[in-house]
Specification:
The chain has 641 residues and is of the alpha/beta class. The protein has three domains: 10-119 and 350-376, no CATH class; 127-273 and 488-638, 3-Layer(bba) Sandwich (FAD/NAD(P)-binding domain); 282-344 and 388-482, FAD/NAD(P)-binding domain (3-Layer(bba) Sandwich), CATH 3.50.50.60. Helices cover 32% and strands 14% of the residues. The chain has 19 helices and 21 strands. Strand 1, helix 7 and strand 2 (161-165) form a beta-alpha-beta unit. Helix 6 packs across helix 17. The longest helix is centred in the C-terminal third of the chain and has 22 residues, at 543-564. The protein starts with 9 loop residues before the first helix and ends in a 7-residue tail after the last strand. The structure holds NADP nicotinamide-adenine-dinucleotide phosphate.
Length: 641
């Protein structure tokens, strides 16, 4: 609180500050636009920690002025100035981003930052509506990041709900994945709920226990556990046409149960059903063999001969951690990943930075804004295909080619004496074709250890004692670790879901899951998905942002039911189809939609079922509030309860 803060850490804090974000915060504090002067405007290098390119002498001037202004404010000498108007906010955004902010972004980012303390994501239901909403019994499936979020918003709106969770605690992916080195690969200042900032992230990209702790804390702060039943799995649900309810069969620690609810929100994640590869003989291996998401902490890897199959996001994190511990490590790579050079990936957040977040109002928000801008939509042009591109198939546009060259050079520079290794690890598909990882050198360092071998020959079979590659070479192992990913494309699997007329959702999708805005599907009324089809992201954004937008929209749908007295809603087929056509067109123009790229983002027919092809602002706008015209609203039938 102003007037009582120990200003001792201020000098050190200013040394570590992201100065453009601080300038914007100081506009709030002082009302003075001159914090945005051109000589302090940043010029960033892509993927940097935020170095501004501003000459040191100017930075020193800015810090000195900031020190005086912050001291005045925190000692209570000067009160906070009036909230800046929209034009000034836009100017501040352009300044912090070091770029002109396109039309449409001002409104989106103002809302995301909740500069006036209000966000479109807060449910704003009148007392009358809350009374009606008491009849909309809702089941949330999953208590991970998005299930907790849904629970918070339902509670705020006054909708009665229960959360069922298959695990014994909250946290979802951050509870399940405990492999060595597991950490978030989007900056925590962005990978956190917009309304639950943490000013004390220990690292820019924190480790799994820190993330788990964050979600457990949020659950505690919002007193959510009283709504959650743990150890409960949804096996099956069926829509009862006559009564307009979902009949949901649960497997609980006490045995099978059935509940009836008006609406179901699935928050089951997309990347949590481990996918073991279909390699001949896999079950024959006599030693311990496990998936990265089911890490066997009881298996001591010290001195062992270990095989790792897969080189995706998970392996990229655990291989460097175990390489120094095992006796011999063989990494089987089918396709190399792209790693973006991010030197500060494992670095601590400087204590001064945390101090500023805690004590200087709006600094945290502007820092988050910068993250959003720089590492999200700012990267989209680099992975957008140029339909007229006639360069090599290793890129999709000139910009993409330039980006590729920059990253390839950064990878090659890490192994100047190993051209053989460099050739193996530089992908031949375009940057952005698959999920890009963060590279601070530990991956290449691990692969260059004398006890580590990278094998790119295909795997022919697994035997009782090891792995045989297509060239006939047999290698013996004590342990095999599968970093082979998840059944991501089987949305909502293995739940059985029967909608109108008993139609089975998985049969309806027939391997091609689709949903309107990723959330609703014709024929399956009052079934709302979070992280559903085409809401995944490759280079832009944090999935928490998507979940927050989805939950706002789903709450909007429930509000619509309450306002209209309808008992069921589902998207009109033509709306659903037109949306999916737009999404398909969009995905064809992105690196991950390029025909030469094979990935789990695509289904067997080559359609991208996973990804949102547009900007974050587009999802934000599309999910502001449901348009009643997009839906078939059913008015008859009794409500439960
Ligand atoms: P993944 O990215 O799907 O990687 C699976 C790896 O296994 C790929 O290298 C794949 O090769 C390989 N593979 C699959 N089947 C194979 C087979 N039969 N033979 C040989 N290799 C095979 O899985 P993941 O690493 O678990 O990551 C999945 C997703 O989870 C990520 O994209 C990300 O969204 C999320 N994730 C996030 C974080 C984080 O935030 N820190 C960490 C981990 C995971 P191909 O490429 O050739 O298919």
């Amino acid at each position: 609180m102003a007037g009582q803060v120990d200003l001792g850490p201020l000098d050190q804090a200013l040394e570590t500050a992201h100065l453009p974000s601080l300038s914007a915060a100081l506009v709030h504090l002082t009302g003075d636009r001159s914090w945005l002067r051109p000589e302090w405007r940043p010029t960033y290098t892509p993927l940097s920690k935020g170095e501004t390119g501003v000459p040191e002498v100017e930075q020193a001037r800015m810090r000195a002025a900031a020190k005086a202004a912050i001291t005045d404010y925190l000692t209570g000498n000067v009160p906070m100035a009036a909230t800046p108007g929209p034009d000034l906010v836009r100017e501040m955004m352009g300044f912090v981003a070091g770029a002109d902010i396109p039309d449409g972004y001002g409104e989106f980012l103002t809302d995301e930052l909740a500069l006036d303390g209000h966000s479109s994501k807060d449910p704003d239901w009148s007392p009358e509506l809350k009374t009606v909403a008491r009849r909309l019994h809702t089941l949330v499936i999953g208590a991970g990041m998005s299930g907790l979020l849904a629970a918070i918003r339902l509670e705020q709106a006054g909708v009665p709900f229960e959360v069922v969770e298959k695990n014994t605690d909250v946290g979802g992916t951050w509870l399940e994945n405990t492999y060595p080195g597991c950490r978030v690969d989007s900056s925590n200042h962005m990978y956190s709920y917009s309304f639950e900032p943490n000013h004390f992230w220990p690292q820019h990209f924190s480790t799994q226990p820190v993330l788990l702790n964050y979600f457990q804390d949020v659950a505690a702060r919002h007193d959510l556990r009283k709504h959650i039943r743990f150890g409960v799995t949804v096996e099956e649900m069926a829509w009862d046409e006559r009564r307009a309810v979902w009949k949901v069969k649960l497997q609980t620690p006490e045995g099978p149960q059935q509940v009836e609810v008006n609406a179901v929100i699935t928050a089951v994640g997309q990347l949590n059903r481990p996918r073991y590869p279909q390699i001949t003989g896999r079950e024959r291996f006599a030693g311990p063999a496990f998936h990265s998401a089911e890490w066997r902490h009881d298996v001591d890897l010290t001195g062992k001969r270990v095989a790792v199959i897969g080189t995706g996001a998970s392996a990229y994190q655990f291989v460097p951690e175990i390489a120094g511990k095992v006796g011999r490590l063989t990494v089987f790579q089918r396709t190399p990943p792209w790693g973006f050079p991010v030197a500060h990936y494992h670095e601590d957040v400087p204590a001064g930075m945390n101090w500023l977040m805690e004590h200087v109002p709006f600094y945290d928000k502007w820092y988050r804004f910068w993250m959003f801008w720089m590492v999200t939509d700012g990267l989209l042009p680099m992975v957008t295909a140029d339909p007229g591109w006639n360069g090599p198939s290793t890129a999709v546009s000139e910009l993409n080619q330039g980006f590729r060259d920059m990253i390839a050079m950064a990878i090659a520079a890490q192994a100047p004496d190993r051209p053989d290794l460099v050739e193996k690890v530089i992908p031949t598909y375009p940057v952005g074709g698959k999920r890009s990882l963060l590279d601070n050198g530990v991956w290449m360092a691990a692969l260059q250890r004398p006890n580590v071998e990278l094998v790119t020959e295909g795997i022919a079979e697994i035997t009782e004692t090891g792995v045989v590659t297509a060239d006939g070479q047999a290698r013996d192992f004590d342990v095999i670790i599968y970093g082979t990913g998840f059944h991501a494309s089987k949305f909502l699997w293995p739940m059985k879901i029967r909608g109108r007329g008993g139609a089975d959702l998985h049969e309806t999708w027939a391997g091609d899951p689709r949903a309107y805005l990723g959330m609703t599907t014709p024929g399956f009324p009052n079934l709302f998905m979070i992280y559903g089809p085409n809401t995944n992201i490759v280079v832009n954004g944090s999935i928490i942002f998507f979940s927050e937008c989805s939950v706002r929209y789903i709450l909007g749908c429930l509000k619509l039911l309450a306002q209209t007295g309808a008992v069921a809603m589902e998207p009109k087929r033509e709306v659903h189809e037109a949306f999916n056509t737009r999404v398909d067109e969009g995905n064809r123009l992105m690196a991950w939609g390029a025909p030469q790229v094979a990935s789990w983002y695509k289904n067997e027919a080559g359609r991208v079922t996973q990804n949102w092809p547009f900007a974050l602002v587009d999802y934000w706008r599309a999910t502001l509030t449901p348009d009643p015209q997009d839906f078939v609203l059913t008015k008859s039938a009794e409500l439960v309860g």
